[in-house]
Amino acid sequence: MKEGVTTKSGLINEFVREFVGVVPADLLASINASIEAARHEWQPPDGRRASASADQFADALRLHDAFSAMEAQVCAAARLWMGQTLAREANDAPIHVLRCVGPRMSAQSYLRHFDSHVLTVLIPLQCAPDGDQNGDLIVHIRRSEPLAPLMHLITKAWLFFEHGLPFGLRRALVNSGFGMRHCERIRCEPGNAYVFNGFVTLHHNLHVAAGERRSLIIHHYDAGLEARLRTMLRAVRHMRDRFAGYS
């Protein structure tokens, strides 16, 4: 952390930490303007493809002391957790993903999942109009420790199957008493950053009924437990996109 730099932070719940005001308002406006200007060039059908724009936005954020100090702080904590819990050294580069999700992307909501990376940094860029369906983040119960590798792969495979269910069935399943047990809705604000361990925290987003929800997500430190499964799932997803005419 740079000398003299402080960030205002707090726990939203036991899973998610909020850092307030780490994204300057002028930079936020500039990023949103860039997204609007490039709409004709960048329109991924699933709203969540990694892109050069995501890398550029993340690099711009790191030029600001408050954000870079926050990231250094949470990365240090994540590296410590990874070493103590997984006995792995964290040295891989971060992955940046830009997500722009609107009403026509119901396939991108109610997708319960664990991240393959230990540290997830969510930066809201624009929120959809407030309501029951505005794309808010939902976090489920967090495991106290990672599952055994085999159980982890089985769980990820089941969740991937669940993602292929029709929207109505997927929403009903997630909203059931079992699916929503120990859940909490995280109401995010642009300009803040929301940090959690996505590897052990089950989470998903609500549907966006109106407007558009934009987020930059930064994933740090691949846990390294699912390389083969991830390759297989990416191949299946690519084949599914081809049949749907997305590529």
CATH C-level category: Mainly Beta
Q: Any idea what the CATH architecture is?
A: Sandwich
Number of strands: 9
CATH superfamily: q2cbj1_9rhob like domain
- Low-confidence region ranges: 1-6
Strand order in the largest sheet = 1-2-7-4-9-3
Distance between the termini: 43 Å
Q: Count the helices. How many?
A: 6
Work out the helicity level: 25-40%
Q: What class would the helix/strand composition place it in?
A: alpha+beta
Fraction in beta strands: 15-25%
How many individual domains?
A: 1
**Compute the gyration radius: what is it?**
18 Å
User: What is the ordering of alpha helices and beta strands?
Assistant: EEHHHEEEHHEEEEH
Task: Explain how this protein is built.
- The chain is of the alpha+beta class and 247 residues long.
- The protein has one domain: q2cbj1_9rhob like domain (Jelly Rolls), CATH 2.60.120.
- It is built from six helices and nine strands, in the order E-E-H-H-H-E-E-E-H-H-E-E-E-E-H.
- It has helices at residues 25-37, 52-61, 65-85, 149-163, 167-175, 227-244; strands at 8-11, 17-20, 95-101, 117-126, 137-142, 184-186, 193-196, 201-205, 213-222.
- Residues 1-6 have low confidence and may be disordered.
Topology readout:
Blueprint: E1 8-11, E2 17-20, H1 25-37, H2 52-61, H3 65-85, E3 95-101, E4 117-126, E5 137-142, H4 149-163, H5 167-175, E6 184-186, E7 193-196, E8 201-205, E9 213-222, H6 227-244
Antiparallel strand pairs: 1-2, 2-7, 3-9, 4-7, 4-9, 5-6, 5-8
